[in-house]
Design goal:
The complex is a heterodimer of chains A (189) and B (447). Chain A has 189 residues and is α+β, with helices and mostly antiparallel strands. Helices cover 24% and strands 17% of the residues of chain A. In chain A, strands 1-6 form a two-stranded antiparallel sheet. In chain A, a hairpin with a 2-residue loop joins strand 3 and strand 4. Chain A is elongated and about 100 Å long. The N and C termini of chain A lie far apart (95 Å). Among the domains of chain B are: 51-251, no CATH class; 287-332 and 345-392, no CATH class. Chain B has 20 helices and 2 strands. Chain B has a two-stranded antiparallel sheet. In chain B, helix 9 runs antiparallel to helix 19 (357-392). The chains are: A alpha+beta (189), B mainly alpha (447). Chains A and B meet through helix 1, strand 4, helix 3 and helix 4 of A and helix 1, helix 4, helix 5 and helix 18 of B.
Chain lengths: 189, 447
């Protein structure tokens, strides 16, 4: 027969404390959820480069977690001047204005130059070859129309929680953009 | 048109190019006479936003299934199957992003940075496994987390880690959690993601250091059960705390413990605890009580001391923030006065700083201030963890049976079939072969 001094409780002290802690934990999680739900965005975000802030430092080619960077050069032809002497295509002081490798600025020959009509030449990026180093972007922005610029290509980007290029970007040009507008393209002339 | 080319060359030679740095669109658009059609830049779409609901559904379904398999069905095979699925889906298909281990950082950044809207999937990946752990233990670790699944599947010859080493190394996840939250809340970096050893393996792509670390942990993980989960994982530290007060738990035996000790060595993660009998007289507990009392008194002092140490760390820690690092480089006494002839990324960043040095400095100072507050909190957290750990040494849990520790148990289900009662339940053993439950220890079967 249990003594009167020790009434047998259906809940032990340990269980009581545990339940209390659990309820406290649930309350805390609920409060956090309520607070964060107000701020939470319905759409996820993806990383993108603001071409206006890009300083062409070249880190996009080297600092992506992917072996071949997810950043590639993009060409908005509507802005392009179709110059014969394209400063995004040719080395400074090229020997000749032809497609010879020694004349090209691009280290991987990823820009395809094609004659359209006198005096216009078309330049197209071969994304398979582009490594996102931004050398052509520098040439085009410094002396030309700025129709070449770098963008994160979302067929390659794995959308890291924290973009490893953004951390080291010299121009602080990376930002999160809504997934339904994933590119910051230059548009009109 | 050679004339235009010549014009550019004159420009180049005169070095005027640099003066018109910001100017673009210098040449008018061409007027084509042929029927040339301009190509339009392709914009490959990112993974569709609707797919995040699939991730969420897989997480919720996986958690439910893992909990059912571990607690109700008691099926190790089922958990292995689910582990393989999680490894393929969250690991190799989703390439480790999105993941619950990184989610606390998003929550911390979302709490302290008004400019950052946390995606609701990250919030759900943070809350759901924690909520389940509060009720059913760490079933997320068992078979839903790709990191855990990978390590669980490669474990071939587990070695027992000495208790003192386990206890010591087991503190690191709490420290890592504190540091990661500090750096995330201040917007400096996401430590958990940067130093995640397995995501580079899932992507089959990554830096030499991290791939090497991942492979090293895998080799270690063949002999030491789940080294990342037990000794590194910061989210595991959160789950550990939640699971310590869980409503239901893994039990080795389906009904009662025969004290046969067959399960004793079955756990590769050192989570099984022996029965502990309370001393016959309360007097025997007195030294423990006195030690506990002393520790309780000392705890605030310990927290204060480590908090002060943490505040000392604020300045070095803040240098991990890119803005603070840039401001420091800009105001460094040995900063070269003129930019180098060939621009480097660093010189370009300094040139950016030069456009608004005061603004940058103000921002860096504000960030460092946040680090100072964060440093106090981080240090205090370290002290609290150490203090609670010491106090836990004075606790004497009364345990009649062999039981998994609530917070250390990863719900992998390896111990089930070691139990003769489980074998009876499965029909592998005749019930008569078992000793009857000792009358004093007999417990009604619990769900």
């Amino acid at each position: 027969m249990p003594s009167l001094n020790q009434p047998s409780s259906p809940v032990s002290r340990r269980d009581f404390l545990r339940s209390g802690a659990r309820i406290a934990g649930m309350t805390g999680a609920g409060a956090l959820l309520g607070l964060m739900a107000q701020r939470a965005g319905a759409v996820t975000h993806v990383w993108q480069i603001d071409p206006a802030k890009c300083v062409r430092c070249g880190r996009c080619a080297t600092d992506c977690v992917l072996e071949q960077s997810a950043v590639k050069c993009v060409h908005t032809h509507a802005i392009c001047g179709y110059c014969e002497l394209c400063t995004g295509y040719f080395e400074p002081e090229p020997n000749a204005l032809n497609t010879g490798a020694e004349n090209q600025l691009c280290p991987t020959a990823a820009i395809i130059r094609k004659f359209i009509e006198d005096p216009y030449y078309e330049y197209v990026i071969d994304e398979q070859l582009c490594i996102g180093c931004g050398k052509c972007v520098e040439g085009c922005n410094r002396f030309g129309n700025g129709s070449l610029y770098l963008q994160v290509r979302h067929d390659r980007c794995v959308n890291c929680n924290e973009c490893s290029i953004a951390r080291v970007c010299a121009g602080d040009a990376f930002r999160r953009v809504p997934v339904d507008h994933p590119y910051l393209l230059k548009t009109s002339h | 048109m050679r004339a235009r080319g010549l014009f550019i060359w004159i420009w180049l030679l005169l070095g005027l190019g640099a003066t018109v740095f910001a100017a673009e669109r210098r040449f008018p658009p061409p007027e084509f006479e042929t029927d040339y059609v301009m190509p339009v830049a392709a914009t490959p779409e990112p993974r569709s936003a609707a797919m995040q609901y699939v991730d969420l559904a897989v997480l919720a379904g996986g958690l439910g299934l893992a909990t059912w398999l571990a607690l109700r069905r008691r099926s190790r095979k089922g958990l292995i199957g689910l582990s393989i699925f999680s490894l393929v889906y969250f690991g190799f298909y989703r390439a480790g992003c999105i993941c619950a281990i990184g989610a606390p950082q998003n929550v911390a950044l979302g709490l302290f940075d008004n400019g950052y809207a946390i995606p609701f999937t990250a919030l759900a990946f943070f809350i759901l496994p924690l909520a389940v752990a509060l009720f059913a233990g760490r079933t997320f670790c068992a078979a839903v987390c790709p990191h855990g699944a990978l390590q669980d599947l490669i474990l071939i010859r587990p070695v027992k880690v000495p208790a003192w080493l386990e206890a010591g190394l087991g503190l690191f996840p709490y420290f890592f959690l504190g540091a990661g939250l500090l750096f995330a809340a201040t917007g400096a970096t996401f430590l958990f993601c940067r130093y995640d050893p397995f995501v580079p393996l899932f992507r089959m792509n990554g830096s030499f250091l991290m791939v090497g670390l991942g492979l090293g942990l895998l080799v270690l993980g063949m002999f030491v059960g789940r080294p990342y989960c037990r000794f590194v994982c910061p989210y595991g530290a959160l789950l550990r705390m939640a699971a310590a007060v869980s409503r239901w738990r893994i039990r080795i035996t389906p009904n009662y413990c025969t004290q046969c000790r067959l399960c004793e060595e079955s756990c590769p993660y050192g989570a099984i605890r022996e029965p502990v009998n309370l001393p016959s007289t309360p007097q025997a507990l007195a030294p423990d009580r006195r030690r506990m009392g002393r520790l309780l008194v000392l705890l605030p002092a310990l927290i204060l001391a480590t908090a002060w140490l943490g505040s000392r760390l604020a300045t070095p820690f803040s240098k991990l923030h890119p803005k603070v690092a840039l401001a420091e480089a800009y105001h460094a006494p040995d900063r070269p006065a003129a930019p180098p002839p060939v621009a480097t990324p660093d010189s370009l960043a300094l040139a950016r700083a030069d456009r608004d040095p005061d603004g940058l400095l103000a921002e860096a100072v504000a960030i460092r201030k946040r680090f100072r507050i964060g440093g106090w909190l981080f240090g205090g957290w370290i002290g609290l963890v150490l203090g609670v750990r010491l106090m836990a040494l004075s606790l004497r849990p009364a345990r009649n049976d062999f039981e998994p520790d609530r917070s250390a148990c990863l719900a992998c289900g390896r111990c089930y079939t070691y139990c003769p009662n489980e074998r009876v339940r499965l029909g592998l053993l005749a019930p008569e072969a078992l000793p009857l439950p000792p009358a004093t220890l007999a417990q009604p079967p619990k769900a």
